[in-house]
Amino acid sequence: MTERTARPPALSLGVLSLELPAGERWWGGAVPDGGVMPFGDRPHHRDLAVNAGLLDDPTGGANQSAPLLLSNRGRYVWSDRPFAFTVTGGRLQVQGPDLVVGQGAEPTLAAAFRAASAAHFPPAGRAPARAMFTGPQYNTWIEMPFAPTQRKVLDYVRGMLDAGLPPGPVMIDDLWAQDYGSWQFDRSAFPDPTAMVAQLHDWGCPVLLWVVPFISPDSRAFRAVRPRGLLIRRPSGRIAIREWWNGFSAMLDLTNPAAVDWLCGELDALRDEHGIDGFKFDAGDLRDYRSDDVTLGGAEPVDLCQAWAELGQRYAYNEFRACWRSGGAPLAQRLHDKPATWDERGLGSLIPESIAQGLIGHPFSCPDMIGGGDLWGAEDEVDQELFVRYAQVAALHPMMQFSRAPHRVLDAEHLAIVRAAVALRERLLPDLLALVDHAARTGEPILRPLAWLDPDDPGPADQFLLGSDLLVAPVLQPASPHSVPTRGQTRSIRLPPGRWQAQWDGADRTVLAGPTRITVPVDLSTLPWFRRV
Question: Is the overall model pTM greater than 0.85, yes or no?
């Protein structure tokens, strides 16, 4: 095949201007904007085509995004290509190619989502592997960054199980292989990977390996694929060598079927030889590519990001942190790495960004690693109260993932509360798995904003619905700057339309009619949740 630089066919650019009636609000676009959704009450701008989040601003990237906006009055806006939008002065203005305005069967957010999904990103009819939901996931990243070994992995997982946590998928993170692109175990660190995988399987733990669409320059893999034209080039004809968070690498041209076949051949060999179950597909962000990169398919950055997600759909055990226009796909979507903070960058971002994931078509969401997956600062003294609240939020998400070992960083009291959150998740697995199946069939979010039931709910997104019958309102604020919460703390909770009954131990079980707002007492162990009756 011959490389070419042609861009996708020219599309009809347009400008759409919609007046916002009183009370109309919008969701969608980029997941990191979840904290300011819904749009409508204050100015907001986002250009989905811009490579935000370059190395000098790693938090600004679009991460997961889609050319979709949804209204609580049943309207939606869609394009097959990136667009820019601005909400200000009572108007939504969208600029982009071949814009589509649609209308749901009813004037609701749910109806807008259903109409958009059916027309533009219908569900695949399947979900990621069941075990990704049934047990907590265990990721080695924080405990052994850049230096996993066979012994460390086994000790890490055995420690989790001995601490009273149930079996679940194990993700062996960065640098299990010698070079990026040379996807074979580093035998100096993993002398018998087949035996390691067999042991983890005996403990009930499927195994995923971390991979990226990059290849280390001058590695054996680089020399093998370069003459075959499987790497992205610059307009000069030279191989594109790009800086990313862990060094400098060449990049596979995922618009080239031969490059996809080569990589999948490497991954399938790991499955066949060692029993590996699947892969954590990291990187592939929009920021990793440039509009003038030369590819076989004439791709824009969004196309390369989307191609990475399409490759991952071959594997039932998968995880993604960056996706473009991949709604309806059977992909596990984790939020980007979070710091161990209480604010809108850390704990406070989990619910609104998870809601945003679902509303752009990614129902199989995971709210980052418990305690925060941002490596830098991970060795600072752990805020045990914060760790507990992270675990409580994650326990009632579609997926939950540990990286820091709770038995290493928590005292007995806090560890017992984390185990209780996991036990609650296990009790509610029938509900969660029913929602997973429903999402696979319909594409509808598992984790939903209250506006799904109440179009006039004003937010903020500090609580969420699981389906339409479970309401979760985790505690997101510390009891005080200097003390562990024991008594005297309260949580304000909004109940949407319906009849709701509190379900946690010690709660008042009186059935309450919504919409209404209540205030409940909480302590460190309290995870407020309700069932619609």
Answer: yes
